[in-house]
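Assess this:
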Amino acid sequence: MITRILEVRSDTQFNNDLTTWNGAMNSLKVLLALKPEELVEIGKLTSDFTSALTAANTAKAAAKSAVTSKDVAKKAALTLVRKYSKKYRADLSISDSVLDQLLFAPHATPGSSTPPSVPTGLIAEDKGLSVVGLAWHANGNKYPTTYVIETRSSATDAWTILDTTTKRRFDYQADGNPIWFRITAKRSGLTSTPSTAVSLWVNGQGVNLKVAA
C-alpha cells in the first residue's frame, strides 16, 4: 500500500517519505521543469527537518534520562533526610526549636493529640410508633470520629451506652417511656465532653423537632 506524503503519520514516517520525495523530485527535475534554486530549497528543507527530528529525538531521550536521574537522586536525598529526622527526633536533648530549624517535626509527645469536639445541636424527634430519630452537629469533628450514644430512663439514673456510629443521625426503637439521650465523640482513644442531654416523653410530653442537615 502506497503512503501519500500529505497523509497524517508519525514524524519518523514523514521524514522517510520526505527523503523519498526529495529524491523523486531530483530524479524528475527535467520532466517537472524544476529550477536549480527550487531543488536547493527542497533539499534544504528536507535536510532541515531530518536534523530537527534527530535533535528532538535526542532531546527526548536526554529528558527522559534526566527525569530518571532526578527521581533516583530525590529518593536518595529523602532516605538520608529521614535517617537524620528519625535520629534527632528520638534524641530528647535536641530541642523542638532546633528540629524546627532543620525543618523536622517536633518530638512526638504521647497523649498530645487534640481530643474531639463536643457534639452540638442534639435533637430527639418522635417519629411515631415510639421510634426516636436523633440528629446532631459534628462541631468540626471529621471521620474517623465515632459518636457514642448514651441513654438513661430518669434525670438521676446513670448513663449507659446504647450504641455507636460514625454518622450524625441515629434511629432507635424505644418503648414510649421517658428517656434521656446524650452524645460523646471519640477519636484516637480520646473522648469529648458529653453533649447537652435531651429527653422524650417526660411528663407525658413528646418532642417533635428536627435539626438542620
Confidence is low (pLDDT under 50) at residues 206-213.
